[in-house]
Amino acid sequence: SVDKENMITCTAPVNIAVIKYWGKRNEDLILPINSSLSVTLHQDQLKTTTTVATSRSFQEDRIWLNGKEEDISHPRLQSCLREIRRLARKRRNNAGPGFDATALSHKVHICSINNFPTAAGLASSAAGFACLVYTLARVFGVEGELSGIARQGSGSACRSMYGGFVQWIMGQQEDGKDSLAQQVEPESHWPELRILVLVASAERKPVGSTSGMQTSVQTSSLLKHRAESVVPGRMVEMTEAVRRKDFAAFAELTMKDSNQFHATCLDTYPPIFYLNNVSHRIISMVHRYNRHYGETRVAYTFDAGPNAVIFTLQQHIPEFVQMVQYFFPPEINGGQFIKGLSVDQAPLS
Ligand code: PMV
């Protein structure tokens, strides 16, 4: 039996990195080797919905992902649960009698659903852990800075704790207390910006980000160069491009950073291939499109999978979508398109 007051449902959207996070300096605390910057999608697009219930009758903490029960002892899940309960105890001890601490004495049942393919390089863990941490915080009455806890679930999750344009500052401290997400600009800042997802494959990725990053940190000298000498400058330039709403600068940095991330994957030994033929054709198509107009109107970026995330401005959407449909006709490739920020039904690849 679940007490209605002790059940809360929240949603959290996916975020798409335009300056990529790849590589940890501390595996347990999830501290990155470089800062990163992302755009959080709207709540009604790619998102996770999580319900957390507490009840006196629950015997143990349990979790279901997309309807299937998963192992609650997963270390990163445990980190999030432990940290939220720690904050809740702190709050209870400081708050005195007014604070309802019933939830603290109960076990939780967590139910989480993605409205997009899990682990296909579409940042499912980012939305998932952000949503988990936020919902748990609500259930336990915890407020304030939560991105440091979401980070311990999945690094990129800390950026989904905020909307709009968000940076994850790598921080300097060994305890990770300064490795937090921060909003650069709210989503209202750049209303013309649009995001489309072109699904090249909805399969699970062959190399997960955790093991991929480990191998890259151990073997890629390009990754070291990138983290130390390239990303710091790009963070400054990207923040500026966003502030100025300079699409060409934003787009060029986004594409270069995606390309360098995938170059570090190739530089990893043994190499990691996240892009497929369709991804490569999308990259060529975008460059040809931009060259045709003599200006950068469209940008692509790819995470740990072959699916393209496209950035463009509202005015270019109809033409660009038409071109994608021309080059990737649905009946030939039989793929599937997931909703873009402004397009419901669209092209396939
Ligand atoms: O947070 P993780 O472990 O899922 O890693 C995400 C890594 C990339 O998506 C490839 C880049 C990023 O910054 O989101």
TrEMBL record:
InterPro entries, sorted: GHMP_kinase_C_sf (IPR036554), Mev_decarb (IPR005935), Mev_diP_decarb (IPR029765), MVD-like_N (IPR053859), Mvd1_C (IPR041431), Ribosomal_Su5_D2-typ_SF (IPR020568), Ribsml_uS5_D2-typ_fold_subgr (IPR014721)
EC number, as in UniProt: 4.1.1.33
Any one Gene Ontology molecular-function term assigned to this protein's record: ATP binding
Catalytic activity line of the entry: (R)-5-diphosphomevalonate + ATP = isopentenyl diphosphate + ADP + phosphate + CO2
Class of this enzyme: lyase
Sequence ranges assigned to domain Mvd1 C-terminal in this UniProt record: 195-349
Keywords assigned: ATP-binding, Cholesterol biosynthesis, Cholesterol metabolism, Lipid biosynthesis, Lipid metabolism, Lyase, Nucleotide-binding, Steroid biosynthesis, Steroid metabolism, Sterol biosynthesis, Sterol metabolism
GO biological process: one example: cholesterol biosynthetic process
Biochemical pathway: Steroid biosynthesis; cholesterol biosynthesis
GO cellular component: cytosol
Ranges of residues in domain Diphosphomevalonate decarboxylase-like N-terminal: 12-181
Origin: domain of life: Eukaryota
Family: Belongs to the diphosphomevalonate decarboxylase family.
Job description of the protein: Catalyzes the ATP dependent decarboxylation of (R)-5-diphosphomevalonate to form isopentenyl diphosphate (IPP). Functions in the mevalonate (MVA) pathway leading to isopentenyl diphosphate (IPP), a key precursor for the biosynthesis of isoprenoids and sterol synthesis.
Protein name (database record): Diphosphomevalonate decarboxylase
